[in-house]
Amino acid sequence: MDLRHLRYFIAVAEEANIGRAATRLHISQPPLTRQIQQLEEELGVTLFIRTPRGMELTPAGELLLDEARNIRSLVEQATERTQRAGQGRLGRLDVAIFGSAILDVIPTLLLAFRNRYPDVKVVLHNMTKNEQIEALRQRRISVGFNRMLAPHEDIGTLLVTTENLLLAVPTEHPLARQEIVRFADLAHHPLILFPSGARPSFIDKIIGLCAERGFEPRVSQEVGDAVTAVALAASGFGVCLVPTSATTLQFPGVVYRRVHEAPPGFFVDLTCIYRKADQSPILAAFLETIEAEREARSQAGSSHSAR
Amino acid sequence: MDLRHLRYFIAVAEEANIGRAATRLHISQPPLTRQIQQLEEELGVTLFIRTPRGMELTPAGELLLDEARNIRSLVEQATERTQRAGQGRLGRLDVAIFGSAILDVIPTLLLAFRNRYPDVKVVLHNMTKNEQIEALRQRRISVGFNRMLAPHEDIGTLLVTTENLLLAVPTEHPLARQEIVRFADLAHHPLILFPSGARPSFIDKIIGLCAERGFEPRVSQEVGDAVTAVALAASGFGVCLVPTSATTLQFPGVVYRRVHEAPPGFFVDLTCIYRKADQSPILAAFLETIEAEREARSQAGSSHSAR
DNA sequence: ACAACGCAATACCCTGGAGGTATGATCCGG
DNA sequence: CCGGATCATACCTCCAGGGTATTGCGTTGT
Prior knowledge:
The structure is a homodimer.
Chain A: H1 3-15, H2 18-25, H3 29-43, E1 48-51, E2 54-57, H4 59-86, E3 91-97, H5 105-116, E4 120-126, H6 129-137, E5 143-146, E6 155-170, H7 174-177, E7 181-182, E8 191-193, H8 202-212, E9 219-222, H9 226-234, E10 240-243, E11 254-257, E12 259-260, E13 267-275, H10 281-299
Parallel strand pairs in A: 3-4, 3-5, 7-12, 8-9
Antiparallel strand pairs in A: 1-2, 5-13, 6-10, 6-11, 6-13
Helix pairs in contact in A: 1-2, 1-4, 5-10
Chain A binds a DNA duplex through residues 4, 17-19, 27-35, 37, 50-55.
């Protein structure tokens, strides 16, 4: 049996007349007669009673009509869904994020993606940098978000956003009272650094920046993530350099200060990583959305990184 | 798209290798390659990633695999069900009965049919004789059960069972005390007759039998059905001739008596009626069951009509 | 009663496409 | 760098689906 048989069968059943059905199907009447005969023969069932006025369905034919319509709609649905999946408009995207990245741009990004591709289910996973690389290679995720990534041969990167750094200062801290905080001031106060995981990381960046200015920071704590760092700062453990988006965290007991006279490179990138070999149209759509969003933000003038 | 395409697609997806899939499908590899290419082209979607080790499904391909398996099983189910319907093993049979016929043979008959054809849904309708004829012609029912049917050109009949007649007598009635009740005795006692509906009916049969013996019965009541008649007899309204199966009704206050020296024709047929033009295999199966059951009953020796 | 019409079925032809064989293009492992 | 495996391409064959012409049959209309 063939989908053609079913299509023809439905037409004949609905027209109750082979001639009209043939016209509707844009074929001539005799082949249609034969196809119906074939179908009946193959099933071993009489589907129509031939009357001088046309074709009348038998009970078995009635049943097949139901089933055939069902199958037809399922086939239509299958092609349509497969096409949408092929265009990246239907499916699933597994995304890895890390703690503090969720603070700023990622929620708006995911929202924008969801609006453009409502039938793509986005699944979030919390992963460290190295876990992300591994998960990408094992295809457990399709994209990851990261900072300070060492390059890998098979992993592509796309810059999502660039954020300036701010200093989180306890309210009672001497630096909180200064009108202007200078980078060099960091030499005299204990610093909270993060993340404590895989190197190179944000920690190395800050140590590097300090080295450029000829001092080595006094490290009071190394913690896992920005949230913990700011929380510790709020408790007076020390000051802490954070991406601008961390201002989302408004702990009592902590204020944010711009840092003047900072060395070049006093910012941090958020990048998106993916398998270079990944051909998935959903991934392509996601990366495209990232670029479109970055575009939109920069055109809006007051981009986050300029805050 | 074609069912062939789906079948081939499933095979390739499952084998992850065109060559092996071709073997499994009993065709050679190149046509299979082409069919897959066609399918991809028609959908406008890449379904497989070609690797040096075989064919790997894309996400869109994964989705289509699900859908295709679904469609395949639906097609299989459709053919199987249609075939069963064509053999009368699946479907629906609308059966008309009238009041008292339900007392005896019809329940066992329906039970036997249900056992043989468990997937045929039997729907019962209560109808009078004339309603049955009309409903048959309008295809609202496929079979009816009846007694004393006037012949119709387009309606076929099949004898279901023949039942002797018994006399239902009030317990306190003089005839209840006689050791032997003779047919001629009926001349002296008021009779309850039924059914009061369309003629000719059971009533005419009894009046005819009496006429053969040269008397006209004294009619105390005409009622609609056997159950009412026996109930009235139990209340002392008179005596009443009923088919043997009415002994199912064991009212207090009524006893059943054989009638001796009855004229020939002192029995009543239960017949099954159907449209002669009806080709439905379900009807055929039902009529066949009726004959098989009658056969079984007569072979069992103590047939109901001999009770 | 017979002609005219409508419908499905049959006879016969033609062509597109499914399937076959042979071969090429790539990539991997030894 | 070669042998083997895999998918793709080229080209041929042949069947089956589609077309035209016609028949068969029952109903209808005059």
